Amino acid sequence: MFRNFKAVEKTAYGRGSFDKLGEILAPQRQANEGYLIFFVDEYFTDKEDFKARLPLAEKDKLEFVPVKEEPTTELIDTLRDKYLNTYGLPAGVVGIGGGSVLDVAKAISLMFTNPGSSTQYQGLNLIKNPGIYACGVPTVSGTGAEVSMTAVLTGPEKKLGIKCDWTVLNQIVLDPDLIATVPDNQWFYTGMDNYIHCVESMTGHFKNTFSEAFGYKSLEMCRQVFLELERSDPKSDELLMVASYMGGLSLTYSEVGVCHALSYGLSKVLHIHHGLANCIAFNQLEDVYGDYVQEFKTMVDKHKIDIPQNLAAGWSEQTIDEMAEVAIRLEHMWRHAFGENWQEVLDKERIKNWYRRM
Ligand code: NAD
Ligand code: ZN
Predict the structure, then answer these.
(1) Do residues 104 and 43 make contact, with C-beta atoms less than 8 angstroms apart?
(2) What is the CATH classification number for the domain harbouring 91?
(3) I need a surface site. Which of 44, 145, 343, 358 has the fewest CB within 10 A?
(4) Is the dihedral of CA 77, 69, 44, 24 positive or negative?
(5) Is the pLDDT score of 58 beyond 90?
(6) pLDDT at residue 1 tops 90
């Protein structure tokens, strides 16, 4: 497999690094109409202490992003039009939040310089022009969105990333202090997104020494976080934040697999969030991921996490069929999981049977 991937240009890491954001952004402020937009997770709407730490200059804008639903193409288009029509082209955007908000910042940075709707650009290398400056500050760890070259959007037809070199953030600020307040279930679901990224990246046909180097290290850190340490241990958040970064890098030179394909079906059809959808699917994939699923279950038990089961009892055959249809179209994931001749071992019925177990 050949890849030639672009990395994040600048990375700041460490407790308290968030307070350097003003300094980090200063050289970027002059471009275009000279203002920055801060897209911040709605969780922080009433967190006055946190808001006081945002380095907002006079012309800057602050937009709280709704995250109950994963980001949609409609949200991106609406936000882009609102700012472009009222204030002109910004100097840059800053996304502060979980994977959802990071993807909003990544997508909107591109949509400021590419005409039409973001639905036109869902896919690989469809973007025509580089976006404006984009900085990301994760406040939940595990998606790897901070380093990935994709901004995942749900559109009217598909849940698919805008994927190209220009999607990669210019700057990230990794401050482990910021993830301390994530509720336990969410902390676990998104953390498991990273665990599953590593497992899938390293168990498929596209794996290689590069992806394994980051993947094994990230997996080892995940095990420390979810099997050895208590969450209250300060080391835990530091490990998880860096594990997410490394898991993301592992994926840039490999691929996700069966769990993510099934998870996309759950998210597209039933609007189940990515991390939770992964956990629901992975819990039933012992026939594919063996001991890793056992290990996952040990982590679930240790942290007393609620993973919904017996959901399929409430799904109609049509719902299962719709999800299988979404999943089977993700050919690159099946090719990675089962090889070039994946169609010989996988058909829609096998996919439906996985859904029927959930
Ligand atoms: P999220 O961004 O959807 O946030 C989950 C919840 O955590 C939200 O309710 C949010 O308000 C809350 N939250 C955020 N920060 C908090 C904090 N510090 N304290 C308390 N609560 C906080 O969750 P996520 O799992 O990080 O991201 C999922 C999204 O990422 C999905 O849209 C998925 O498609 C996307 N994703 C993208 C990539 C990529 O490479 N671009 C990879 C995987 C997933
Ligand atoms: Zn994922």
Answers:
(1) no
(2) 3.40.50.1970
(3) 343
(4) negative
(5) yes
(6) no
CA 66/CA 257 separation, integer angstroms: 29
- 148 and 285 within one domain: no
Q: Which domain holds residue 59?
A: 10-179
- 109 touches 93 (CB < 8 A): yes
| Domain count for the chain | 2
Question: Is there an atom of ligand 1 within 6 Å of 99 CB?
Answer: yes
225 and 252 in a common domain: yes
Strand 171-174 with 159-163, pairing: unpaired
* Predicted confidence (pLDDT) at residue 29 exceeds the cutoff of 90: yes
Judge if the beta carbon of residue 162 lies within 6 A of ligand 1: no
User: In this structure, are 174 and 57 located in the same domain?
Assistant: yes
Q: Give the pLDDT mean for 50-69.
A: 97
Which of 5, 6, 45, 100 gets mutated to test ligand 1 (max ligand atoms within 8 A of its CB)?
100
Nearest CA to ligand 1 atom 2: 98
Domain boundary among 144, 159, 179: 179
Whether 66 and 92 share a structural domain: yes
Q: Is residue 4 part of a domain?
A: no
- Residue 62 within any structural domain of the chain: yes
**Tokens 């999981």 sit on residue:** 337
Instruction: Please state the atom number of ligand 1 nearest to the C-alpha of residue 98.
Output: 2
Q: Is 330 in the pocket of ligand 1 (CB under 6 A)?
A: no
State whether 202 and 147 are in the same domain: no
CB crowding 160-181: b at 16 or more within 10 Å, else e: bbbbbebbbbbbbbbbbbbbee
Amino acid at 224: Q
- The last residue of one of the domains, among 129, 157, 179, is 179
Same domain, 191 and 152: no
* Residue 308: predicted pLDDT: 96
CA distance 294 to 74: 39
DSSP 261-291: HHHHHHHHHH---HHHHHHHHHTT-HHHHHH
